[in-house]
Amino acid sequence: MQIGDSSGSARRLLLVAAAALIDTAGRVLITQRPAHKQLGGLWEFPGGKVEPGEAPEFALARELKEELDLTVEPDALDPFAFASHAYPDFHLLMPLYTATRWQGAPKLHPDAAQALAWAHPRELKSYAMPPADIVLIDRLIERSVP
Q: Which of 3, 38, 43, 116 falls between 20 and 30 A from 85, CA-CA?
Protein backbone atom coordinates (compact mmCIF):
# COMPACT_ATOMS: atom_id res chain seq x y z
CA MET A 1 0.00 0.00 0.00
CA GLN A 2 1.25 3.47 -0.86
CA ILE A 3 0.45 6.63 1.07
CA GLY A 4 1.17 10.23 0.23
CA ASP A 5 2.82 12.82 2.41
CA SER A 6 2.58 16.61 2.43
CA SER A 7 5.08 16.84 -0.44
CA GLY A 8 2.90 14.61 -2.62
CA SER A 9 5.47 11.80 -2.78
CA ALA A 10 4.34 8.27 -2.04
CA ARG A 11 5.87 6.02 0.60
CA ARG A 12 5.05 2.40 1.17
CA LEU A 13 3.13 1.69 4.36
CA LEU A 14 4.78 -0.82 6.67
CA LEU A 15 2.69 -2.40 9.42
CA VAL A 16 4.77 -3.71 12.32
CA ALA A 17 3.37 -5.06 15.59
CA ALA A 18 5.41 -4.62 18.78
CA ALA A 19 5.15 -5.77 22.37
CA ALA A 20 5.87 -4.24 25.74
CA LEU A 21 6.42 -7.43 27.71
CA ILE A 22 6.12 -6.40 31.36
CA ASP A 23 7.55 -8.61 34.10
CA THR A 24 6.34 -8.84 37.72
CA ALA A 25 8.77 -6.07 38.73
CA GLY A 26 7.20 -3.69 36.18
CA ARG A 27 10.18 -3.83 33.84
CA VAL A 28 9.78 -3.83 30.05
CA LEU A 29 11.79 -6.05 27.70
CA ILE A 30 13.65 -4.27 24.89
CA THR A 31 16.00 -5.69 22.28
CA GLN A 32 18.92 -4.18 20.41
CA ARG A 33 18.79 -4.28 16.62
CA PRO A 34 21.69 -6.11 14.93
CA ALA A 35 24.41 -3.72 13.75
CA HIS A 36 24.09 -4.81 10.08
CA LYS A 37 20.35 -3.99 9.84
CA GLN A 38 18.63 -0.66 9.20
CA LEU A 39 18.67 1.37 12.46
CA GLY A 40 21.31 -1.08 13.70
CA GLY A 41 22.39 -0.77 17.31
CA LEU A 42 19.20 1.00 18.41
CA TRP A 43 16.97 -0.51 21.11
CA GLU A 44 13.34 -1.33 20.36
CA PHE A 45 10.26 -3.10 21.56
CA PRO A 46 10.35 -6.64 20.17
CA GLY A 47 8.05 -7.52 17.31
CA GLY A 48 8.00 -7.58 13.56
CA LYS A 49 6.23 -7.18 10.25
CA VAL A 50 2.61 -8.13 9.85
CA GLU A 51 2.23 -10.32 6.76
CA PRO A 52 -0.65 -9.73 4.30
CA GLY A 53 -3.87 -11.24 5.68
CA GLU A 54 -2.34 -11.75 9.15
CA ALA A 55 -3.87 -10.21 12.28
CA PRO A 56 -1.36 -8.06 14.22
CA GLU A 57 -1.78 -10.16 17.40
CA PHE A 58 -0.98 -13.37 15.54
CA ALA A 59 1.97 -11.74 13.77
CA LEU A 60 3.31 -10.57 17.10
CA ALA A 61 2.91 -14.00 18.72
CA ARG A 62 4.75 -15.51 15.72
CA GLU A 63 7.56 -12.93 15.84
CA LEU A 64 8.09 -13.32 19.60
CA LYS A 65 8.43 -17.08 19.13
CA GLU A 66 10.82 -16.72 16.18
CA GLU A 67 12.97 -13.93 17.64
CA LEU A 68 12.98 -14.65 21.39
CA ASP A 69 11.63 -18.22 21.74
CA LEU A 70 8.74 -16.90 23.85
CA THR A 71 5.24 -18.33 23.62
CA VAL A 72 2.62 -15.61 23.93
CA GLU A 73 -1.02 -16.40 23.24
CA PRO A 74 -2.59 -13.77 20.96
CA ASP A 75 -5.40 -13.21 23.50
CA ALA A 76 -2.77 -12.33 26.15
CA LEU A 77 -1.77 -9.28 24.06
CA ASP A 78 -3.64 -6.13 25.09
CA PRO A 79 -3.78 -3.26 22.58
CA PHE A 80 -2.10 -0.31 24.27
CA ALA A 81 -0.99 2.48 21.91
CA PHE A 82 0.35 2.99 18.42
CA ALA A 83 3.03 4.97 16.64
CA SER A 84 2.82 6.46 13.16
CA HIS A 85 6.15 7.69 11.81
CA ALA A 86 7.37 8.76 8.37
CA TYR A 87 10.85 7.38 7.76
CA PRO A 88 12.64 8.53 4.57
CA ASP A 89 11.63 5.52 2.45
CA PHE A 90 8.50 4.16 4.20
CA HIS A 91 5.76 5.11 6.65
CA LEU A 92 5.62 2.92 9.75
CA LEU A 93 2.39 2.15 11.54
CA MET A 94 3.16 0.26 14.74
CA PRO A 95 0.54 -0.92 17.21
CA LEU A 96 2.08 -1.61 20.62
CA TYR A 97 0.56 -4.34 22.73
CA THR A 98 1.28 -5.07 26.38
CA ALA A 99 1.60 -8.55 27.83
CA THR A 100 2.25 -9.79 31.34
CA ARG A 101 1.87 -13.51 30.58
CA TRP A 102 4.12 -15.64 28.40
CA GLN A 103 5.92 -18.96 28.51
CA GLY A 104 9.68 -19.32 28.40
CA ALA A 105 12.66 -17.09 29.05
CA PRO A 106 13.81 -14.75 26.27
CA LYS A 107 16.63 -16.18 24.17
CA LEU A 108 18.44 -14.13 21.56
CA HIS A 109 18.23 -15.15 17.93
CA PRO A 110 21.36 -13.62 16.31
CA ASP A 111 19.55 -12.43 13.17
CA ALA A 112 16.85 -10.70 15.22
CA ALA A 113 18.71 -8.97 18.06
CA GLN A 114 22.21 -8.58 19.42
CA ALA A 115 21.24 -7.92 23.04
CA LEU A 116 18.24 -7.66 25.33
CA ALA A 117 17.52 -5.68 28.48
CA TRP A 118 14.80 -5.32 31.07
CA ALA A 119 14.19 -1.69 32.06
CA HIS A 120 11.63 0.21 34.10
CA PRO A 121 9.60 2.54 31.85
CA ARG A 122 11.40 5.68 33.10
CA GLU A 123 14.77 4.04 32.35
CA LEU A 124 13.79 3.51 28.69
CA LYS A 125 14.63 7.17 28.00
CA SER A 126 18.32 6.37 28.53
CA TYR A 127 18.35 3.89 25.61
CA ALA A 128 18.86 5.04 22.01
CA MET A 129 15.65 3.99 20.25
CA PRO A 130 14.08 4.57 16.81
CA PRO A 131 11.71 7.57 16.63
CA ALA A 132 8.62 5.35 16.39
CA ASP A 133 9.51 3.59 19.66
CA ILE A 134 10.46 6.78 21.52
CA VAL A 135 6.97 8.24 21.25
CA LEU A 136 5.57 5.24 23.14
CA ILE A 137 7.80 5.59 26.20
CA ASP A 138 5.75 8.36 27.86
CA ARG A 139 2.61 6.24 27.51
CA LEU A 140 4.36 3.35 29.29
CA ILE A 141 5.56 5.72 32.03
CA GLU A 142 1.98 6.95 32.52
CA ARG A 143 0.80 3.32 32.74
CA SER A 144 3.40 2.44 35.37
CA VAL A 145 2.58 5.30 37.75
CA PRO A 146 0.58 3.88 40.66
A: 116
The sign of the dihedral angle between the CA atoms of 106, 111, 112, 117 is: positive
Please name which of 116, 145, 90, 103 lies closest in space to residue 31, comparing C-alpha atoms. Answer: 116
pTM summary value:
0.89
Cβ atoms of residues 144 and 124 within 8 Å: no
Integer Cα distance of 10 and 15 in angstroms? 16
Domain boundaries, the chain: 13-144
Candidates 30, 4, 52, 6; CA nearest to 96 is 30
- Longest CA–CA separation in the chain, Å: 47
Taking only the tens of pLDDT, the chain with its 146 residues reads 445 555 545 789 999 999 999 999 999 999 999 888 888 899 999 999 999 999 999 999 999 999 999 999 999 999 999 999 999 989 999 999 999 999 999 998 878 889 999 999 999 999 999 999 999 999 999 988 65
User: Between 3.10.560.10, 1.10.3470.10, 3.90.79.10, 3.30.70.1730, what CATH number should domain 13-144 receive?
Assistant: 3.90.79.10
